[in-house]
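May I ask you for just one protein sequence along with its backbone structure tokens in two labelled lines?

_____
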Amino acid sequence: MAIEQTLIDALGGRLNIVEVEPCTMRIRIQVKSQRDVDEAALRVDGVLAVVRSGDVVQIVCGAQSDDVAAAMISLLESVAHDTPAESLSQRVHANI
């Protein structure tokens, strides 16, 4: 499984993800519920650190953060296009 799918799953799945934003050396993800986030599962090869505060999870991936964030966004958007709009309760945001 690719790292982007692993991270999405560990964040509680696509319906728990409100926003994904690449931020230089980290990925900033706003989630609906921190209770659905599996921090241990986020700590995979390529993840240097995980920081949680409020409804935000920051995943530090170093120089590959922008690429991982773009892959996450692409995966979330591809799923969103296959999902009826009325059942989709998330938004994906990129500042790439």
The chain has three helices and four strands. The mean pLDDT is 86. The first helix runs from residue 3 to 10.
